[in-house]
Amino acid sequence: MTNQLIIFDTTLRDGEQSPGASLSVSEKIEIAKQLEKLNVNVIEAGFPVSSPEQFEAVERISKEVGVTVAALARAKEIDIKAAYNAIKDGEKKRIHTFSSTSDYHILGKFGDDRYGKTLADKRETILKMSYDMVQYAKTFVEDVEFSAEDAGRTDLNYLVEVVEAAIDAGATTINIPDTTGYTMPKEFGEKIAYLMEKVKNINKAIISVHCHNDLGLAVANSIAGIENGARQIECTINGIGERAGNASLEEIVMALKVRKDIFEIESKIETKEIINTSKLVSGYTGIIIQPNKAIVGENAFAHESGIHQDGMLKNRETYEIMTPETVGVQKTKIVLGRHSGRHGLKARLDELGYIIEADELQKIYDAFTKLADKKKEVYDDDLRILMGDSKNKNNAIFDLEYMHVFGGSSTIPTATVRIKTDEKMLEDSSTGDGPVDALYNAIDRALNKKPTVESYRVRSVTSGREALGEVTVRIRKNDRSYTGVGVSTDIIEASAKAYITAINKKERYERNNNKNKTENSKSEI
Ligand code: KIV
Ligand code: ZN
């Protein structure tokens, strides 16, 4: 058995399924290029059949990166065709198809009698469907992955049958997801060992694991999978994903690296790119990294108590099992200021993983000099924020032109806003309980929309009185939420930017979805 671990990154597919984390196509391309620098083996770029925007993202990523790009598809011809069409011009392509195998899923999703009257009949239908659809995917590409959804709660002997059938049909990777994050590490490891022993043709495929974090065990379960024969791990940057998220790439990779004394298996990940990748993903998704998050949290390498600091000064290894530099945390931070030129700015942004087109540089440089005038020293985190801000502006359907907020302890807070759209300028005013409430009411009136604000958070990006304030807002409309991040040295302005960014994401999603519906209804006619 090989001692190389395949890192299958699903940040752009399962990760994007995190509540509020919708990414634009250009943000996805940038993240994909950074994942390539990180040296992942496979990028799962999306679920092409689900929307035209997903299709476009997968298609463009597969043309622009050299690593294998996987496209997700249910075990249905229409999904598999869409997946293939999205990746067909790519250099290395994989179709990832899946069927539900647990009784919970079978009875819940395949309850209709056309799938069989009894549970045994339905299981038979799914087994055949899995076999047929892997064979169908094989007519398009050599590299086919099959996942048994909710394998963690699937009857083991039935799982053996399904896996054997998928390999017979030509699957080259078999993925065993703990979809609901239900299993315990020992139990999950034993499931993998059982499959390794009982599936007759197991040596014809790579076994993969895909663990969710509902009980905080996704990384532990993935490692138990590796210990029992899995050679592909499906994971995401910062552990983002459905509900409590997926196994975190950086935690698995660093666990194997730090404890290479016990694992005779390694990944090819360029660990020095971990921090840049983590911050890029956090910035574009708006999902803040908890300070105590392993490897990439702000406190991951901070030593607060006197005893610890003293120990560290004498010998780093007293309290440090890996150096911050290994994951790309720089001790001496490079600081830019108002005298830095375009060239210096571009070089630093390149290092941080951003892709700057020639025609974008001047705009970014103008924003940078404005910021450098307000803040004498511009840190990497300020630059990351600046880049997020300029992306938001480029993708804007609604753009904040002007705002004026009036408040104080003995007046009614009042706000006026002017918002630019493609067709016209919208302007309105409103009062509110506080300045942010007045501002949001004014925006709602101008746009004639009223999404529910699910959460609102402010934090300072760097330290000092002139630090940038970052506001993260999550809004909800129908059954979806959207996150917007806004930054300014003025937190009221940052609040407006965050809210409008979230509304832009909602608008973009709804417009795409409506377009999709219209196209589908046209093709049905
Ligand atoms: O969690 C899951 O089961 C999945 C599959 C589609 C692989 O994401
Ligand atoms: Zn998943």
Distance between the termini: 53 Å
Low-confidence stretches: 520-525
Bound chemical compounds = 3-methyl-2-oxobutanoic acid, zinc ion
Beta-strand segment tally:
14
Morphology call: globular
Average pLDDT metric: 91
Rg, rounded, reads 25 Å
Helical content, roughly? 40-55%
CATH architecture annotation name of the largest domain: Alpha-Beta Barrel
Q: Percent of residues in beta strands? A: 15-25%
Query: What is the CATH superfamily classification of the largest domain?
Result: Aldolase class I
The CATH class of the largest domain is identified as Alpha Beta
Characterize the largest beta sheet: strand count, sense, and whether it forms a barrel.
8 strands, parallel, barrel
User: What string, H for helix and E for strand, traces the elements in order?
Assistant: EHEHEHEHHEHEHEHEHHHHHHEEEHEEEH
Strand order of the largest sheet: 1-2-3-4-5-6-7-8
Find the CATH topology of the largest domain.
TIM Barrel
Provide the domain count.
3
